[in-house]
Amino acid sequence: MNIGDRIKEQRLYKSWTQEQLAHFLNVSRSTVSSWEVGRNYPDLETIVAISDLFEISLDKLLREDSIMVRETSKKAKHFKLYKIAFVILSIIVVSYIGYNQKLKHDETIYRANLQSNGWKLDTNPASGGNAYELYQNGTKYWTYILPAGFIGFPLSEQKIDVIVKKGKLTVDVHGRDTFEVILSESNDSDITFSAKVIVDQEGHFLSSEDKISGRKKAQIKKYLLYYQNDYKQMIHNGMLQRKRIITRH
Q: Which residues form the HTH cro/C1-type domain (predicted)?
């Protein structure tokens, strides 16, 4: 006996019409009819409601209906999977919103710190209102604040670089322990090469972004040594400026 026959059997036992059963289950009469003739099956939630309404166990209601048992088992598994997926998706959405709010809060702090420390917005239209510059004691400082939720970087931690330029010398302070010296013929006519090299806090050569010959490396080291005191001071000042930007009061 399939579930449709069971439903009809229990309905007749209680002397209910199809209309009455449909009313109790909040479905249409034609839906009840389709169950009883085997055209359709009730969903999992309705099967539980039918079991409660007739005061019979699910086991008895579904007994001998192997097709319905398989369908119900499959729906139960799918429901469980959907529930798990919904929970995971909810966690991801909440985490995204929360983290993005943190990034927006960080951005607000950084911009406020820049303003309070005398930084001015870069007037170059290409900066999009996100670049700042500061002139202090003959040295120019430049930084860029990436807007929170920026396309392509929706969950990226804000990384604050401070570029320090003094005369023909340029240093990019990437963080507390990463410093890059930018060498360019356009900045210094005394050199005949361009390069970006990683240095330590004292201005000593560590590595280069590009492969360089032994001769070029020797030239770079000689140049760095000649201006070591300047680079050391620029790195120190850049670190101080960066700390002032990211400090939370």
A: 7-61
User: pLDDT tens-digit profile of 69-105?
Assistant: 566 666 666 667 777 888 888 887 787 778 778 888 8
CATH of the domain at 50: 1.10.260.40
Residue 91 in any domain: the answer is no
Is the domain of 219 the same as that of 124?
yes
Q: Which of 73, 51, 74 is nearest to 3 (CA)?
A: 51
Domain that holds residue 225: 113-246
Low-confidence ranges of the chain (pLDDT < 70): 1, 63-79, 149-157
Task: Kindly state whether residues 40 and 118 are assigned to the same domain.
Answer: no
Alpha carbons within 13 A on the beta-carbon side of 159: 11
The per-residue pLDDT for 156 is 53
Closest CA to 234 of 142, 143, 171, 160: 171
In this predicted structure, what is the pLDDT of residue 78?
66
Task: Tell me the per-residue pLDDT of 17-26, one tens digit each, with 9 for 90 and over.
Answer: 999 999 999 9
Residue 96 maps to a domain: no
> Percent of the chain having pLDDT more than 90?
41
Q: Determine the 3-state secondary structure of 96 from DSSP.
A: helix
130 and 58 within one domain? no
Q: Could you tell me how many residues make up the chain? A: 249
CB-count burial class (<10 Å; 0-12, 13-18, 19+) for 81: exposed
From residue 212, give the alpha-carbon distance in Å to each of 69, 196, 216, 218. 72, 11, 6, 10
What is the rounded CA–CA span in Å between residue 37 and residue 18?
Answer: 12
d(CA 36, CA 50): 13
